[in-house]
Design brief:
about 220 residues; alpha/beta; Arc Repressor Mutant, subunit A; 2 domains; 5-stranded parallel sheet; 4-stranded antiparallel sheet; 8 helices; binds calcium ion
């Protein structure tokens, strides 16, 4: 689940945002103490930060500059200041986007989705390569040891996602979510079928252990 840190001193707005994000399937992290926000962000490692401009201890712009010194976490300013100068200043300080209060909820959710997608690793890199396997998403093929196998779109996306996270354990839920992001709506059973078929193709390419199962955790390459 993607974590969104809400840095907003207006309690009503903060709680409303928190509830809204929770309903959308995000994990909201509302900040309630405003003196050590950079440390809180470093500890929570959110995927995205919603940042108010007017805050009690330190204004949003200088806080954004501080956050940027230690992290690339995307930041969307949620601000009631709707002057263009403020917005431009916000963006030049390292914010990824901004939205003005009172915000339009569908617009806010769309901005969040776009910024999160832009910052997450691309599921189909041009021709990802790993451990002797070369993927060609455009042709729908995988090549290894001089042999080429045809892969389905699902199989391509699975391998591309695992390569993008090489060395990490990728849970089945993460894999399903990554495929959903690419408009492939598969369930747990379908994922198992896909993985089994993919493994037999990799086996034929001379890579029988390319995808390792980490029991109870997920997959790893
Ligand atoms: Ca405020």
């Amino acid at each position: 689940m993607q974590k969104i840190m809400i840095i907003e001193d207006d309690k009503a707005v903060r709680e409303e945002l928190s509830l809204l994000l929770e309903n959308e399937g995000y994990h909201p992290i509302p900040v309630t103490a405003f003196h050590n926000i950079t440390q809180q962000a470093a500890r929570e490692m959110p995927d995205l930060i919603l940042l108010d401009l007017g805050l009690p201890e330190q204004d949003g712009l200088s806080l954004c500059a501080d956050l940027r010194r230690s992290s690339d976490t995307p930041i969307i300013f949620v601000t009631s200041h709707d002057s263009t100068a403020d917005e431009l200043a916000a963006l030049s300080m390292g914010g990824d986007d901004y939205i003005t209060k009172p915000y339009n909820i569908p617009l806010l959710l769309t901005r969040i989705k776009v910024v999160l997608r832009r910052s997450s690793p691309k599921i189909t890199a041009d021709s990802p390569e790993y451990n002797g396997l070369k993927l060609n998403p455009a042709k729908g093929t995988a090549t290894a040891n001089g042999h080429t196998a045809e892969l389905t779109r699902n199989e391509i996306q699975i391998v591309a996602h695992l390569i993008a996270h090489a060395g990490e354990i990728v849970s089945r839920a993460d894999l399903i979510e990554a495929l959903w992001d690419n408009k492939i709506y598969i369930d747990d059973n379908t994922l198992s079928v896909n993985i089994t078929r993919l493994r037999s193709k990799l086996d034929e390419l001379g890579l029988p252990d390319f995808i390792k199962t980490r029991r109870g955790l997920g997959y790893q390459i």
